[in-house]
Amino acid sequence: MLDLLQITNDPAFAGRCDALDGMRLFVDLERMGKAERQAGRDTFISQHTVADVGRIREAARRSPLMVRVNPLNPGTAEEVEAVLAEGADLLMLPMFHRAAQLREFAAIVGGRAPIVALLETAAALETLDEWITTPGLHEVFLGLNDLHLALGHRFMFEPLALGLVDHVAQAARSCGLRFGFGGIARLGEGLLPGRDVLAEHLRLGSQAVILSRTFHRQDEGEGRFELEVQALRRAEVELAQRTPQQMQADARRIAASIEAIAAGLPRRA
Prior knowledge:
The chain has 269 residues and is of the alpha/beta class. The chain is built from 13 helices and eight strands. Helix 3 (50-59) packs parallel to helix 4 (76-85). The chain starts with a strand and ends in a 6-residue tail after the last helix. It comes from Ramlibacter henchirensis.
């Protein structure tokens, strides 16, 4: 069962998520440099605070709680101490470029929580073999939003069509690490439909995906979020029953769809 990562600082909603199996709550403290990197794009810029970590921990006792901190900076040690004190179970480091940065972060954490490396820079992709054996590393998660921009791609899922996600998945697997990537829309929504994204997660042995903002719409009635998660779980079971040949055929079709979508998008200046 995939971990479904839900970004939230709403204790009431976190409590609803906590009632579902296979959820991972996600408080996002990253702000340094993010607005500049993703300017002009319809992406999420968090306003979460350290205090939100404690509020979500109190509301959700069953699901693991992950906190994305800011990129490594002079205040990282203080930030790590604060989020651990508030009850974080896992710590995610974004926007690292070199093995030395991830190792410095691991030294700060000092084994007190598992580390999730958010691979979202071209340099981190190029130096994968140098940092994937970092002590304390628990999971490698590909952040396709920033990574596709760093690589000069037009569409977020192009690294998937080009085999880059396959490469990282294999590297993580060979080191006994968990692996996940990107976000997922509702099954029939998104430029690349959620069902196709889910199919690729299962082919690659992924263990984690971020639920997009479309899963929880404030204007929808109580219970719709739960129904959409249930639909995704049913599709997860169905897609897991495909033969290897069916998985490869789906992968070729999905790669062609990604290439067609990318070809229709303007190049980023």
